[in-house]
Amino acid sequence: MKITTRKKIFLCLGLFAISLSSVHAQTLAIDFIELKDRTIIIHYDLDDGANSNRQFLVQVFSSQDNFSSPLTRVTGDFGPDISAGFDKKIVWEITEELGPFKGTLSFEIRARVYVPFVKLNKSTYEGKRFKRGKNYPINWQSGNLNGQLNIELFNSAGERIWGESNVANIGKFDWYIPNNIKKGNTYRLKFTNTRDRNDVTYSQVFSIRPRIPLIVKIAGITAASAAAILVLTGSENTGTEEAGALVGPPGIPNK
Questions:
Q1: 18, 52, 160, 199 - which has most CB atoms within 10 Å?
Q2: In the CATH scheme, what architecture does the domain 118-209 have?
Protein backbone atom coordinates (compact mmCIF):
# COMPACT_ATOMS: atom_id res chain seq x y z
CA MET A 1 0.00 0.00 0.00
CA LYS A 2 1.34 3.39 -0.95
CA ILE A 3 -0.24 6.71 -0.04
CA THR A 4 0.77 10.16 -1.15
CA THR A 5 -0.15 13.72 -0.35
CA ARG A 6 1.23 16.97 -1.66
CA LYS A 7 1.31 20.64 -0.68
CA LYS A 8 2.98 23.73 -2.03
CA ILE A 9 4.99 26.42 -0.29
CA PHE A 10 6.20 29.65 -1.88
CA LEU A 11 9.50 31.03 -0.55
CA CYS A 12 10.47 34.62 -1.33
CA LEU A 13 12.46 37.05 0.81
CA GLY A 14 11.60 35.14 3.97
CA LEU A 15 7.82 35.25 3.36
CA PHE A 16 5.67 32.33 2.35
CA ALA A 17 2.14 31.34 1.44
CA ILE A 18 0.59 27.88 1.50
CA SER A 19 -1.94 26.33 -0.82
CA LEU A 20 -3.16 22.78 -1.16
CA SER A 21 -2.51 21.43 -4.64
CA SER A 22 -3.80 17.87 -4.34
CA VAL A 23 -4.61 15.12 -1.86
CA HIS A 24 -4.43 11.56 -3.13
CA ALA A 25 -5.58 9.56 -0.12
CA GLN A 26 -7.86 9.79 2.89
CA THR A 27 -5.36 8.33 5.33
CA LEU A 28 -2.47 10.75 4.77
CA ALA A 29 -2.81 14.54 4.75
CA ILE A 30 -0.59 17.56 5.26
CA ASP A 31 -2.24 19.87 7.81
CA PHE A 32 -0.03 22.93 7.47
CA ILE A 33 3.56 24.03 6.88
CA GLU A 34 5.60 26.44 8.98
CA LEU A 35 8.66 28.45 7.98
CA LYS A 36 10.97 29.43 10.85
CA ASP A 37 14.08 31.23 9.63
CA ARG A 38 15.33 28.71 7.05
CA THR A 39 13.71 25.69 8.67
CA ILE A 40 10.50 24.22 7.25
CA ILE A 41 8.19 22.23 9.54
CA ILE A 42 5.61 20.02 7.83
CA HIS A 43 2.67 18.89 9.99
CA TYR A 44 0.78 15.84 8.76
CA ASP A 45 -1.73 13.19 9.86
CA LEU A 46 -1.38 9.48 9.18
CA ASP A 47 -4.58 7.57 9.95
CA ASP A 48 -4.46 3.79 9.53
CA GLY A 49 -7.92 3.07 10.92
CA ALA A 50 -8.28 -0.29 12.61
CA ASN A 51 -4.75 -1.34 11.63
CA SER A 52 -3.16 1.17 13.99
CA ASN A 53 -0.38 -1.20 15.05
CA ARG A 54 1.29 -1.23 11.63
CA GLN A 55 4.53 0.63 10.91
CA PHE A 56 5.14 2.87 7.89
CA LEU A 57 8.05 4.11 5.84
CA VAL A 58 7.47 7.88 5.54
CA GLN A 59 9.50 10.04 3.14
CA VAL A 60 9.21 13.62 1.97
CA PHE A 61 10.06 14.85 -1.53
CA SER A 62 10.28 18.29 -3.13
CA SER A 63 9.82 19.77 -6.59
CA GLN A 64 13.45 20.94 -6.55
CA ASP A 65 14.44 17.63 -8.23
CA ASN A 66 10.98 16.79 -9.60
CA PHE A 67 10.19 14.55 -6.59
CA SER A 68 12.82 12.00 -7.64
CA SER A 69 14.76 11.56 -4.37
CA PRO A 70 13.69 11.91 -0.73
CA LEU A 71 15.00 14.84 1.29
CA THR A 72 17.90 13.93 3.55
CA ARG A 73 18.47 16.90 5.88
CA VAL A 74 15.30 16.13 7.82
CA THR A 75 14.42 15.11 11.36
CA GLY A 76 11.22 14.14 13.14
CA ASP A 77 8.52 11.67 12.08
CA PHE A 78 10.08 10.31 8.92
CA GLY A 79 11.86 7.17 7.79
CA PRO A 80 11.00 3.59 8.75
CA ASP A 81 9.06 2.36 11.78
CA ILE A 82 6.68 5.36 11.90
CA SER A 83 3.40 4.64 13.68
CA ALA A 84 0.07 6.08 12.54
CA GLY A 85 -1.09 9.19 14.40
CA PHE A 86 -2.01 12.85 14.21
CA ASP A 87 0.08 16.03 14.20
CA LYS A 88 3.20 14.27 12.99
CA LYS A 89 6.09 16.61 12.18
CA ILE A 90 8.92 16.60 9.68
CA VAL A 91 11.57 19.30 10.10
CA TRP A 92 13.64 20.18 7.04
CA GLU A 93 16.79 22.32 7.11
CA ILE A 94 16.44 23.83 3.65
CA THR A 95 19.74 25.71 3.52
CA GLU A 96 21.70 22.63 4.57
CA GLU A 97 20.27 20.69 1.64
CA LEU A 98 19.78 23.33 -1.06
CA GLY A 99 21.92 26.25 0.10
CA PRO A 100 20.51 29.78 -0.39
CA PHE A 101 17.13 29.35 -2.08
CA LYS A 102 14.38 31.58 -3.43
CA GLY A 103 11.40 30.47 -5.44
CA THR A 104 8.52 28.02 -5.34
CA LEU A 105 8.62 24.57 -3.79
CA SER A 106 6.05 21.79 -3.72
CA PHE A 107 6.27 19.03 -1.15
CA GLU A 108 5.08 15.46 -1.36
CA ILE A 109 4.84 12.99 1.50
CA ARG A 110 4.80 9.30 0.64
CA ALA A 111 4.07 6.49 3.07
CA ARG A 112 3.78 2.75 2.70
CA VAL A 113 3.44 -0.16 5.07
CA TYR A 114 6.96 -0.94 6.16
CA VAL A 115 8.35 -4.46 5.99
CA PRO A 116 12.02 -3.85 6.81
CA PHE A 117 14.65 -5.40 4.57
CA VAL A 118 17.00 -4.58 7.46
CA LYS A 119 16.09 -4.19 11.12
CA LEU A 120 18.84 -2.95 13.42
CA ASN A 121 19.34 -3.35 17.13
CA LYS A 122 19.71 0.12 18.72
CA SER A 123 22.00 -1.16 21.47
CA THR A 124 24.58 -2.23 18.87
CA TYR A 125 25.37 1.38 17.94
CA GLU A 126 23.78 3.92 20.28
CA GLY A 127 26.53 5.64 22.26
CA LYS A 128 29.09 2.96 21.36
CA ARG A 129 32.78 3.54 20.65
CA PHE A 130 34.44 1.72 17.77
CA LYS A 131 38.20 1.68 17.21
CA ARG A 132 40.06 2.15 13.96
CA GLY A 133 42.04 -0.79 12.62
CA LYS A 134 39.74 -3.39 14.21
CA ASN A 135 37.05 -5.76 12.96
CA TYR A 136 33.50 -5.63 14.28
CA PRO A 137 30.66 -8.02 13.46
CA ILE A 138 27.54 -6.16 12.29
CA ASN A 139 24.29 -8.05 12.80
CA TRP A 140 20.72 -7.28 11.74
CA GLN A 141 17.40 -8.96 11.10
CA SER A 142 16.93 -9.55 7.38
CA GLY A 143 13.59 -9.09 5.65
CA ASN A 144 14.85 -10.66 2.41
CA LEU A 145 17.61 -13.24 2.61
CA ASN A 146 17.93 -13.28 -1.18
CA GLY A 147 18.47 -9.52 -1.43
CA GLN A 148 21.56 -7.34 -1.37
CA LEU A 149 22.35 -4.06 0.32
CA ASN A 150 24.95 -1.31 0.41
CA ILE A 151 26.53 -0.40 3.75
CA GLU A 152 28.00 3.11 4.02
CA LEU A 153 29.54 5.23 6.77
CA PHE A 154 28.55 8.90 7.04
CA ASN A 155 29.69 11.71 9.30
CA SER A 156 27.55 14.48 10.80
CA ALA A 157 28.07 16.66 7.70
CA GLY A 158 26.45 14.01 5.49
CA GLU A 159 29.76 13.09 3.85
CA ARG A 160 30.26 9.49 2.77
CA ILE A 161 33.42 8.22 4.46
CA TRP A 162 33.40 4.52 3.64
CA GLY A 163 31.23 2.01 1.81
CA GLU A 164 30.76 -1.60 0.80
CA SER A 165 28.43 -2.46 -2.12
CA ASN A 166 26.27 -5.49 -2.88
CA VAL A 167 26.53 -7.11 0.54
CA ALA A 168 24.40 -10.24 0.91
CA ASN A 169 21.38 -9.53 3.11
CA ILE A 170 22.02 -12.52 5.37
CA GLY A 171 22.01 -10.59 8.64
CA LYS A 172 25.74 -10.31 9.29
CA PHE A 173 28.81 -8.54 7.97
CA ASP A 174 32.41 -8.32 9.22
CA TRP A 175 33.24 -4.59 9.29
CA TYR A 176 36.89 -3.55 9.29
CA ILE A 177 37.29 0.13 10.21
CA PRO A 178 40.13 1.66 8.15
CA ASN A 179 42.94 3.41 10.01
CA ASN A 180 42.58 6.60 7.95
CA ILE A 181 39.11 7.46 9.27
CA LYS A 182 39.15 10.56 11.47
CA LYS A 183 38.07 10.18 15.07
CA GLY A 184 34.63 11.64 15.82
CA ASN A 185 31.45 11.30 17.86
CA THR A 186 28.70 11.60 15.22
CA TYR A 187 29.12 8.73 12.77
CA ARG A 188 26.31 6.46 11.60
CA LEU A 189 25.90 3.60 9.13
CA LYS A 190 23.47 3.71 6.23
CA PHE A 191 21.92 0.50 4.86
CA THR A 192 20.38 0.77 1.38
CA ASN A 193 18.35 -1.83 -0.47
CA THR A 194 20.06 -2.24 -3.87
CA ARG A 195 16.69 -2.93 -5.54
CA ASP A 196 15.03 0.17 -4.10
CA ARG A 197 17.35 3.10 -3.31
CA ASN A 198 14.55 4.80 -1.37
CA ASP A 199 14.49 1.86 1.05
CA VAL A 200 17.06 3.11 3.57
CA THR A 201 17.84 2.41 7.23
CA TYR A 202 20.27 4.38 9.41
CA SER A 203 21.98 3.20 12.56
CA GLN A 204 22.07 5.21 15.76
CA VAL A 205 24.93 7.67 16.19
CA PHE A 206 28.23 6.27 17.48
CA SER A 207 31.87 7.37 17.80
CA ILE A 208 35.12 6.19 16.23
CA ARG A 209 38.37 6.37 18.19
CA PRO A 210 42.06 5.57 17.54
CA ARG A 211 43.06 2.01 18.34
CA ILE A 212 45.80 3.28 20.69
CA PRO A 213 44.87 6.53 22.51
CA LEU A 214 47.30 9.43 22.00
CA ILE A 215 48.10 9.67 25.73
CA VAL A 216 49.20 6.04 25.72
CA LYS A 217 51.47 6.67 22.73
CA ILE A 218 53.04 9.70 24.46
CA ALA A 219 53.50 7.74 27.68
CA GLY A 220 55.22 4.97 25.71
CA ILE A 221 57.65 7.42 24.12
CA THR A 222 58.43 8.98 27.52
CA ALA A 223 59.09 5.59 29.08
CA ALA A 224 61.41 4.63 26.22
CA SER A 225 63.32 7.90 26.60
CA ALA A 226 63.68 7.40 30.34
CA ALA A 227 64.98 3.87 29.81
CA ALA A 228 67.58 5.15 27.36
CA ILE A 229 68.81 7.74 29.85
CA LEU A 230 69.11 5.13 32.58
CA VAL A 231 71.09 2.81 30.32
CA LEU A 232 73.44 5.59 29.29
CA THR A 233 73.88 6.76 32.85
CA GLY A 234 74.55 3.23 34.03
CA SER A 235 77.11 2.72 31.28
CA GLU A 236 78.96 5.88 32.30
CA ASN A 237 79.04 4.85 35.99
CA THR A 238 80.29 1.38 35.11
CA GLY A 239 82.98 2.84 32.91
CA THR A 240 84.18 5.07 35.75
CA GLU A 241 84.43 2.17 38.15
CA GLU A 242 86.36 0.06 35.64
CA ALA A 243 88.76 2.91 34.97
CA GLY A 244 89.37 3.25 38.72
CA ALA A 245 90.05 -0.44 39.00
CA LEU A 246 92.89 -0.16 36.44
CA VAL A 247 94.85 2.34 38.54
CA GLY A 248 97.96 0.64 40.01
CA PRO A 249 99.03 0.68 43.65
CA PRO A 250 100.72 3.82 44.93
CA GLY A 251 104.55 3.97 44.59
CA ILE A 252 107.01 3.72 47.44
CA PRO A 253 107.56 7.18 48.91
CA ASN A 254 111.09 8.68 48.53
CA LYS A 255 113.16 8.85 51.57
A1: 199
A2: Sandwich (2.60)
